[in-house]
């Protein structure tokens, strides 16, 4: 039922996808007791509280400062620096309950509030760090939600990139292109996928891959990884099907020989 609802939500024109609802749907798969409408109402309440605080003239910087003051100072939202790979950081209900998350989930809270106060903002996938920015021409500012809504300029972003990669990296135009709603949900789920992989929670990882494939059907890497998971849990026929399909989609894949050897081993 949840998979069907999730599929209906994400398989519509991208601008119509309700990211919060979709994220709460896959969270309900993990936390069966959660009330989706309750969490959507909590986001509405946050937005209405911010609306009351907005100045008469709402310049982008002023709006961002009001959201930051309410979200981070009053409500105490923060990035989980101490336990970044806690799976709770990737479930929207837990992020709202605990006031704690990782860059992408905290960004979703921020974007959902911005949407509800009619302040256009978009997510951007700068390498190594997810951030958001106002969706106005030539505004030139960025918001690092993981760091208490820190307001950054182009030079600050390049300094962050240098810190992450230990080399000078120019902020190229495609780094700040808006991330689509489907891509945003895909990234959130991919984070969870690798968290569960590292924790060797293969059944949960399999469920997450199924959700990713609802967003991106026939994605070769996800099909391969699902096949490898089936191998791990000894679902031999399903493993064979997925690994053969992967090789059919990507016959010249770099790991093709290794996959063929694995198929021979299974058969």
From TrEMBL:
Pfam families: TPR_9, Transglut_core2. Residues 38-189 form the Protein SirB1 N-terminal domain. Signal peptide: none annotated. Belongs to the UPF0162 family. This is SirB1protein. It comes from Aphanothece sacrum FPU1. The lineage of its organism: Bacteria, Bacillati, Cyanobacteriota, Cyanophyceae, Oscillatoriophycideae.
